[in-house]
Design brief:
- The structure is a single chain.
- The chain is α/β, with parallel strands linked by helices.
- The chain has a single domain, classed as Spore Coat Polysaccharide Biosynthesis Protein SpsA, Chain A (Alpha-Beta Complex).
- Helix content is 39%, strand content 19%.
- It is built from eight helices and seven strands.
- β1, α1 and β2 form a beta-alpha-beta unit.
- The protein is globular, with a radius of gyration of 16 Å.
- The model has no long low-confidence stretch (mean pLDDT 91).
Amino acid sequence: MTICDLVLPCRDEAAALPAVLASVPQGVRVIVVDNGSTDGTADVAAAHGARVVDEPVAGYGSAVQAGVDSATADFVAVADGDGSFDLSDMSRLLAVVESGRATMAVGRRRPVARGVWPWHARAGNAVVAAWVRRRTGLDVHDIAPLRVCGRVDLLDLGVQDRRFGYPLELLLRAAAADWAVTEVDVDYHPRAAGTRSKVSGSVRGTLHAARDFARVLS
């Protein structure tokens, strides 16, 4: 029985996926959500044993929700598919949730080298995380792209945002539902060669994410 499904929302991540999928802990089933890729992401994912779900509606939240809707395991994890995480770290987050110590565990990014996390993205993340702490009391320092929680718990939250605001709305709804949220330090690596971040890869991408965050906060 698979205890955890891992959702990887992907758009043009073909270059990263072989190594990413090789790092997934044994017994975890991978769902790659292809969100409009033009580089053969779906074919690469399928060739390396992942289940592929097509989500034609563009947006990070759209891709995550499509993957969660397709999941069937008791627990669901979400991570970026760009090679920035060693997904073996997911086992530590799953252990926290499975043991009942938290409703959701999130990976607090610790860059392994300078330049891995561009200043504009890191600064924006810090501002939003501080706001979340003040508003909700959650002790979070990262609007993290790596997280694990119960599948039914997540579906019951009813997160509505379908763009970059999804992880922020998730935290706000988790706080309102009295979830226990625990951060676990994880290494944050450079993206795989041949891929480009839709958020931190440019100031423009960061501004788009900030716009989506502002919509959630309004």
